[in-house]
# Entry
Amino acid sequence: MGTILQSLGKTVIAGFVLLVLIILVVGAATGSMTTVNHAWSMFFVRWLHVLSGVMWIGLLWYFNFVQIPSMPKIPDEQKPAIGKVIAPTALFWFRWAALSTVVTGVLLASMSGYIVQALMFSRPFVAIGIGMWMGLVMAYNVWFIIWPNQKKALGMVQVEPAEKAAAARLAMLTSRVNTLLSIPMLYCMVAQQNGGL
# Structure
């Protein structure tokens, strides 16, 4: 067990293996997995959507609640570890989790038959529609504002110092916009299922 937990890759694979075993054992015991039906497929896509969203919003909040406020407290000689190692890795998972969340969300809304109504704010899909639009804006911000500017700020793209500082500020402010949007977006996603809007 120790060798599994020492490797993130092995830990994640073990988590999926455990999930499959739980599904098979519970499915066999209850008879619910004799055929894979549409409802189960929708549940599985919803689970992937939530899993991706947890990664995405978790990293968004890590950047805004931990990394950004902590940077002024870190001695200058230690900052390269953040900029050269931690931030690029976190940004990789951040942007791909954003894309995965959008793709699984669109797939789920399509499978559920409400994608057009939600995007047009038709009743009874107003809450999920608002959440979807906020999520799309946030994903756009990740890929087309935050990531290009973070590449400049982290020195992955060489620019003049003034442009580097401006890029870092724009990336931070856009990340703050996403943090602001994440609060009502998450509410709208949950509200749709629970009638809370």
Q: What stands out?
A: Residues 38-194 form one domain.
